[in-house]
Structures are given as C-alpha cells and as structure tokens.
Design a protein that fits this description.
Elements: H1 2-31, E1 33-41, E2 54-55, E3 63-64, H2 68-81, E4 90-94, H3 104-107, H4 112-120, E5 125-127, H5 137-145, E6 166-168, E7 172-174, E8 179-180, E9 185-190, E10 193-201, E11 217-219, H6 222-235, E12 240-246, H7 264-270, E13 278-281, E14 287-292, E15 295-300, E16 306-315, E17 321-330, H8 339-356, E18 359-362, H9 378-391, E19 401-404, E20 423-425, H10 426-432, E21 438-445, H11 446-454, E22 469-470, E23 474-478, E24 488-493, E25 496-497, E26 503-509, H12 510-513, E27 526-533, H13 534-545, H14 550-553
Parallel strand pairs: 1-4, 4-5, 5-6, 10-12, 12-13, 13-15, 19-26
Antiparallel strand pairs: 1-16, 2-3, 7-8, 7-11, 9-10, 14-15, 16-17, 18-20, 19-22, 21-26, 21-27, 23-24, 24-25
Length: 555
C-alpha cells in the first residue's frame, strides 16, 4: 500500500513538473516581459523639405520619400502601431548629424530650424556626429542650451530655445577636466526596468572638421569608451544597453538586408563588451538591418528617408533584453503631413525663399560629382577653377593653383532642377557647397605640394583615396602600384614642372587650410590671405562664365 501511494505521489509530481515546464514560457510572455519600441533616425542634416528627395537615393524604381512633415507623421504612427507597447515605453533617438551640411532653409539660420523641427517630432536623444561640430564646440553648446547666435542673432526674430532632446558624447572629452562635453549616456526606465543609451561619434571626427573649432577636445576609441562604461552601468543594475553611434558600415543589399556588411562598424561591434545588445548607427548614409556578433545593428539611410522601427522585449526577472527585431520603414508621402511641422517649414521657407530662388547663372547640361578614372569630376574642377579665379589677382592672393576636397561637394548641379531649364539658383549652389568656408591663399614650397598630393593616398581611417579636385593648368601623374609617399610624379603648373625648393601661392578653403581631411601639411602654409566665402567665389564664377558646360567645367 505504501509503495502504491509512493508511486502515485511520484506520478503526480512528474505531471505537475511537466505542466510547469510547458506553461512557464506562456506565463513569462504574459507577465514578465516588457515590450518597448525604439524609433531611430540618423544623418538628418537639416533636411526639412521633401523637395526632390527619393528612396532609394538613386535607382530606377525610386519613390518620393523624406521631408520632416512626413517623417513626423510616420514616427507618430509607428508609436501607436503596436498596441502591445505602452506609449511611455517608446523612445525616439538619433545616431548623429542632425545638423550640418544642411539645405539653406536650415543652414541660413545656423540649423535652428532643424533643432526646432526635431523638438516638435519628439526626438529625445542624439549621439553627436562629426557634422555637429561643423561650426565648433561652442556653437554646439548653444544648440543644446539655446540663445541667439553671437554674430547673426536670431534671424527669425523670435529667439531660440535650444534642443529639448539631449546630446550624448561619451567619447568626446574636454582635455581640461577629463570629462565628456555632454553626458556619456542616458538611463530610461520602462515599467521598472532600466535601459542605458550610450551615445558617441566616430573617433576620426578631428579629421573631418575644422581643428580650431574643436581645440581642447579629445575623441576616444569607440569600443574602448563603451567597454569602460559597462562596469559603471552594472553597478546601477543595468543589463539592457543600446549604443547610438555615429559610425557605420557599407552593404550591398537592400534597406532591410545586411549583405556583405563591411566598414568600421564591424570591428567596433566585435570589440565591444557582449553586454551591449543593440547598435543604432549612421555616418555612412547606408540603410541596413544586421546581426553582427549576435548583436542587432541598424542604420536608416539619410535625410529622413527611413525610420528604424525597433521592438525589444525586456525580461523583468533578469532586467536584460529577451528578444529584439528591427524593420527599416520608408518615409513615404502617402500619409498626411504633420501640421506642427508644416508650420515650422512654412515659417523658415518664407524667410529663406527669396535668397534660395535667386538665379546666379546658367549650365548647359548636368554638372556632377562623378569622377573620371583619375578621380577628378566636372563639378570638382569647376569649383577649383572658381576658387582660382577669385584669388589669382595679386591683390587677392596671387594664386597659381587651387585645390578642393571632394567631401565638401555635397550635391550635383542638375540641368532640369529649376523651373527654367539650365538656370542655377543660389539655393542649388549652396546645396553643392553648404559649409560657408572662406578661401585661404597661402605659400607652399614645391616639396610641400608634393607632400600634399601624396597624402591623398594615405587615409588612416578608411584606406580610400581622397583625390583633391584641382584647378585648370595644374597637372601631375600618380601610380597606385607604387609605395605610399612615392606615388606622385611630374607635377606641373601651366606645363612648367614645379621645383622642390621654389615657392608657390595656392588656394584652398578654410577647412583644408586648417588641416582638414588629414592634409596636415596645409597648416604649414605661410603668408596667408583669408578671402571671400567659397559660395561667393562660385557665384562670381557663374556670372563671369555662364553658360557653363561639363566640358568647360572640366577644362
């Protein structure tokens, strides 16, 4: 009898255990999992207007996409699309370059319109990118805190309150006190569970901005910065961690694929502590949805064309991420415009349009950034020619050659863009050169010019060539098969070989003159004359040479 009771007890115990095991996952999914939603953008660059934006940016099947009025509506709809996520468990973030290299409607006002628009659509966190430093660290502080521009004031006449969202800069260190210039991270609590959002820019930012604007700042390694923060977060009981990083990769697939992912982001993820669950990235203007080293890695194109819709579940028992998925959503125009954003766009458009639409010249056909086999584009040559023309006179510098960095050319000139074909407006020219750099004419020895040209092939960040666009009459040969430092030969100006010890007057923009793009030799240039803005030189060139053809531009 006792044995029979024991058997019955064991049988019931086994059945009870099986019931618990079978139904435990369902119990966990109902009561112990917290659903959260992260909506992410990157590389917005002050693109308020939809204009000619499409997605993909260049393809035969592209569709209209982007524009802050539509972006705000898509973000609002995504916030409420999943009924399993409480409104308070949704957060909107950015992986940098919210401002800088912006269209005139934003740039004319030092990107105050972009900040106000992002405030209105509910952005909460932004990892600083390299373009956040285009006007220097002091101007970035102003964008966070508010207040009118120290020189131009508030051009819209109603003040500027600053960003309601928080800038994050874990790896940007003030060398005077050893602390980040903005918070390294923010902690958000979702139904009692803490999650950390670490924000930072790429460590190569000093090579991409004017050095005088970031004097006294140090840009630390991305992975090492994150790893150093993990123990601090663990002490706070935080196990769910996302990194907002203004650095990225390149893929060959579509916007929700991860085909052949390469670039800096791959090594950064692999070198980062496994405690990090998610990387929201940018900088490369790519769109991808990846798993790298068992971590979710996303990027949402650029100019507000996409939103990364990321769903996470947090385990209440462990405080960690239980699951996650992402979907890049195209910001289509089949939704209503968000009225609050329409009001902001109309306000600044009314002030900027007279300048934007002012004709400055004519082109005979498209003049593009597409480079030939030697790395020179028609548009790059035209800009260099314009800068030489502006500084060739002895009273303006006496330049014999001009050099333009290709990364500073941000758009093509399209023959069909204006209402009247072939007309180039100030707004179009500004889109080509939106940085408002001044021309700097300086003296370099022939051997220094040789060093400058050799530096084109020695890019420590990506290994890619950065072929300077050169003005008419400046020629040289190069061979990629030769060793670094010995690739350039036969340098000549107007057909006359340069001499190593002879001095020459050359013109570059202020970004290059300050050693930008790692062309440090330009900082050695003597007898500097600072001239007009690059956009002013381009406008003057149009007035002098219109109509300009691609062939003429490339002469």
């Amino acid at each position: 009898m006792r044995k029979l009771l024991m058997k019955r007890f064991l049988f019931l115990a086994i059945i009870s255990l099986l019931v618990v095991l079978c139904f435990a996952p369902f119990a966990l999914s109902k009561s112990d999992l917290i659903n959260i939603k992260i909506l992410a953008i990157n590389d917005f660059h002050g693109n308020l207007e939809a204009g000619n934006l499409t997605f993909p940016a260049s393809a035969t099947d592209r569709i209209p996409a982007g524009g802050v009025e539509y972006l705000a509506t898509h973000i609002k709809n995504l916030r409420i699309a999943n009924h399993q996520v409480k409104p308070q468990n949704t957060i909107t973030v950015s992986a940098g370059d919210t401002v800088g290299a912006s269209p005139l409607i934003s740039a004319l006002f030092h990107d105050e319109p972009a900040i106000e628009a992002l405030n209105a659509l509910g952005l909460e966190l932004n990892a600083v990118g390299n373009h956040e430093f285009d006007e220097g660290a002091e101007e970035l502080y102003r964008k966070q805190k508010g207040g009118c521009h120290p020189i131009d004031g508030c051009r819209d006449g109603d003040g500027f309150g600053g960003a309601k969202f928080k800038f994050l800069a874990a790896n940007v260190i003030n060398s005077r006190n050893g602390k980040p210039i903005f918070p390294a991270y923010q902690v958000r609590t979702f139904d009692g569970i803490k999650m950390a959002f670490i924000g930072m820019t790429l460590k190569g930012t000093p090579n991409l901005v004017t050095s005088s604007g970031i004097a006294g700042l140090e840009f630390k390694d991305e992975a090492a910065t994150v790893n150093a923060l993990i123990p601090e977060l663990k002490k706070q009981g935080i196990k769910a961690i996302a990194v907002l990083l203004h650095e990225g990769g390149v893929t060959a697939g579509n916007y929700n694929d991860c085909e052949g992912i390469s670039g800096a982001i791959v090594d950064i993820v692999k070198n980062t502590d496994p405690e990090v669950d998610l990387f929201i990235t940018g900088h490369t203007h790519q769109a991808y949805n990846c798993q790298i080293d068992r971590r979710l890695v996303t990027s949402a194109s650029f100019f507000g064309r996409l939103v990364s819709d990321i769903d996470l579940t947090l385990d209440r028992g462990t405080g960690d991420v239980a699951s996650m998925r992402a979907n890049n959503v195209v910001v289509t125009h089949d939704v209503p415009k968000e009225p609050a954003l329409t009001q902001i766009v109309r306000k600044y458009k009314a002030i900027a349009d007279p300048l934007v639409n002012r004709p400055i010249g004519l082109i005979a056909a498209d003049i593009t950034r597409t480079a030939n086999q030697n790395g020179i584009s028609p548009l790059g040559r035209m800009i260099a020619n314009a800068q030489l023309a502006a500084t060739a006179d002895d009273s303006k510098g006496g330049a014999v050659a001009a050099f333009m960095n290709p990364g500073g050319i941000r758009a093509d000139l399209s023959y069909n863009e204006s209402e009247v074909k072939g007309v180039v407006t100030y707004g179009q020219a500004f889109a080509v050169q939106p940085f408002r750099n001044r021309l700097v004419t300086m003296t370099l020895a022939g051997k220094q010019i040789k060093q400058l040209l050799e530096r084109q092939f020695d890019n420590p960040r990506s290994g890619q060539n950065r072929i300077l666009q050169v003005s008419q009459g400046f020629t040289y040969n190069y061979s990629n098969s030769d060793t670094l430092g010995n690739r350039v030969s036969n340098i000549a100006i107007a057909g006359i070989p340069i001499a190593s010890d002879r001095e020459y007057r050359i013109t570059v923009n202020s970004y290059l003159a300050d050693g930008g793009d790692n062309f440090a030799v330009l900082k050695e240039g003597r007898d500097r004359i600072v001239g007009e803005l690059d956009i002013e030189a381009l406008e003057a060139y149009f007035k002098m040479r219109s109509p300009i053809s691609p062939d003429l531009a490339n002469n």
